[in-house]
Amino acid sequence: MTDHPLPFRDPQLSFALRTDDLLGRLTLDERIAMLHQFAPAVERLGIGPFRTGQEALHGVAWMGPATVFPQAVGLGATWNDDLVRRVGEAVGNEVRAKRAQDDRVGLNVWAPTVNLLRHPLWGRGEEGYAEDPALTSAIAVAYTRGLRGDDPRYWRTAPVLKHWLAHNNETDRDTASSSVRPRVLHEYDLRAFRDAVRAGAVAGVMPAYNLVNGRPNHVSPLLGEQLRSWTEQPLVVCSDAGAPSNLVDSEHYFDTHEEATAASLRAGVDSFTDHGQDSTVMTGRIRDALAKGLLDENDIDTAVRRLLAMRFALGEFDPELDPYADVTAFDTDEHRALALEAAEQSVVLLGNDGLLPLEPGEGRTVAVVGLLADACKLDWYSGTLLHRSTPLDGIRRRYGAENVLFAEGVDRVRLECADGWLRVPEAAPAKDGEARGAEGALDPALLAGRTDLPPLTCGADATELALVDWGDGVLTFRTDEGLYLSVADDGYVRASADEPGGWIVQETFRLEEVEGHDGGHRLLHIGTGGYVTVAADGAKVAVSGEKISAADATVFRTETVERGEDAVARVAAAADTVIVVAGNDPHINGRETEDRTTLDLPAQQERLWRTASAANPRTVLVLTSAYPYAVTEAAAELPALLWTAHGGQAAGTALARVIAGDVSPAGRLPQTWYASDADLPGLLDYDIIGSRQTYLYFDGTPLFPFGHGLTYAAFTYTDLAAEVEGERLRVSLTVTNDGPRAADEVAQVYVRAAESGTDLPLRKLVGHRRTHLAPGAAERVEILVPVEELGHWSVAHGRWTVEPGAYEVMAGASSADIRLTATAVLAGEPSGPRPVVERGLEAADYDEQQGTEIVDRAKVAGDAVAPVEGVGQLLFRGCDFGDGVHGATVSASGAGSVTLTVDGRSAELAVPATAGIYDYRTVEAALDIRGVHDVRITLKGSVRLAGIGFTA
């Protein structure tokens, strides 16, 4: 025994020294074991097990009850950095509190998601903050600072940013490649990650499933070249679940798992999330890679060192000094109040002709209708609700239950089969000890997937079911007791789920018309792909694991007992004002693994608002959704329109307070709302410059612009000043509340180059400030902008550049509501034309392209360009050939031709077939050109162009 601890146990030493000491004491097998998500204990050294990954996107997820805050896109809609920091702090404290009760809860949290909301049909749009990198960065910095905590030495939790990089589609998400040109890469996608990493509150990142420029993100050289160049902190890279195996199994990027594992480890992945808690598969691959010389022990040590550094920062080895070790803050009064505040601040008033605020008053009756009117929807990354507030709940409390009418607007149906009517048998009484919810219902977690309830049957008595059409023919059926028809593992159909949910939703169906049966339909269960048949032992979609085919399906006839529109029309006509609550169920209408197909509101919900408006013109449409909708006609016809993301546990109370005028809405749209699907680019088109995506480049007329949101007050902007102070631009303006009520305003500052070309942003957010002002009060808002934010990535010179000249500084209430402008003149160094004699032309550094995609030049690093369908073109502007060049050397693989066109003269170079896509050959041609010219390159065949050099 010794009185002195081992060095790694000595809190007087630096984390770096302690990490090195501990690393040196671990055997090779112990080090390899730490590379899996579930790292085992090292009992001989007194080290406990460790798990990377705890979901905490808007509250502690997947670990039972927790405070549920608004979805991430709702937090983005607050445009309030301070609020989001406080939310992050609350979530971090609840992670710590739950960890003290359950060691399955991890302190390495996988949050936030900073992927940009480039395309509004992305299924996971609810997880991001905004389409703009500056706003996303600001919100991400705030949230991670809250999660990390303020202690200079120890971290409350260790946040990991998701998902690196250019991940914005669920369609073919593990095989699709995002073609990202250098300007989009540096100005857009990398920008979203950079500031949070530089701020020092991020412990690492998670690579995305997709490929970028033909190379899987899990072997991306950008992890080293970019991510780890932004900080000296030892960032941890955690793989996404199953992604290491995808490198071989679905992407076929490597021939063997040993090659794939070695390549990802050497590229910078430190922790492998694969095969669940079974670490033997991945650790076996690592050992085999070592044995084959694909890795060495230094590669192992580099990764383990980073993982250990994170564990030291989390206080694992200093429990007596860890300031967060005894945190018990869970479901506190402060957290409940914060959830309400966040929900209130996320509400966006899209349109209002004066109908709102709707103050409660004598004789005022309100009809609340719609599929989400009495819903408090969760998503895949939510915790279990401790408290629940639906719009109907909130409005009843605020206006008085006796003054509120309600109609959900669902169709009520009965399903007839050959032997009678489909019916839900009466369930046996709950067993002793079974959990019950607040109102006596069985706990939803026990209900979902239960197999002890009797399956549906056919008989003389029919069960009326609420039928909801969520769009695209996706249906759910619900009983009067509030239970959804669901399918458990045994294949039987029961009324057993409190809500649709789960990784594979088991509560959705589709009616398919059967030819030759007048009005007859088969009922397809979407989750299993089996058809419903009703046999003597009950309704089922599978037998012994085998799906029931269409030929064996029961044919049902649907009888409508009541149309949802009729119920809505009835209550709408009887009320003073109607509030229609429409939107999406986050488990059904777009989600992880599933993109949306349209911006349109589902047809049933479209009919409901139209019915309500026809019966009562004082109709308000509330869209409660994770995404934008193209509600062009509703915006034109209805007197008021609001949007809120799913607002968590306090959503209904918050909405009622905004409608009643207790709170003036001040949320702002974090992404553009387009007028129709025709405004959208292809889902897989990541070239936001070329296809004019997001508010930065979109030159059409949106339904609602980025940053849009109305209030119940009136604000004026005055005295804008923009002054260059060295490396900063100081922007200041005065915002005054000229309205009769206290309210928040979100001042937004944009810039653009006064003489910007078509490929530069139309406007670019550089700062924002949400401020609360009493009636008549004014505040001087000051925003400091790094001058580099006014620049762009120069493909001509391969660097960031800020061009000298005049820049227009614009301040206003949205990207389209600019109130003031000023001019800032920057002194800089003109970048000038492309020095092609010295630098040549990298194929991916084009200014414009048509029909091409960027692909991987080699598996380790580098880009090339290939035609998508046999022919493509690249344009390089302003190429300076100096006093003249006499030859061109093309580096290409594949087979086909490369044609150079300069000043009307063309030279076609044939590229003979090479041994493979990574086997590059050089082809030379005479070329006599001098001065500055545009260069157009035409690619034909299966050629991959790496670049072109020029000989003086």
Automatic annotation (TrEMBL):
Keywords: Glycosidase, Hydrolase, Signal. GO terms for molecular function: beta-glucosidase activity. Gene3D superfamilies: 2.60.120.380, Galactose-binding domain-like (2.60.120.260), Glycoside hydrolase family 3 C-terminal domain (3.40.50.1700), Glycoside hydrolase, family 3, N-terminal domain (3.20.20.300), Immunoglobulins (2.60.40.10). It comes from the Bacteria. Residues 834-952 form the Cellulose binding type IV domain. InterPro entries: Actin-crosslinking, BXL, CBM6, Cellulose-bd_IV, Fn3-like, Galactose-bd-like_sf, GH, Glyco_hydro_3_C. Its EC number is 3.2.1.21. Residues 745-815 form the Fibronectin type III-like domain. PANTHER family: BETA-D-XYLOSIDASE 5-RELATED, SUGAR HYDROLASE-RELATED. Belongs to the glycosyl hydrolase 3 family. This is Beta-glucosidase.
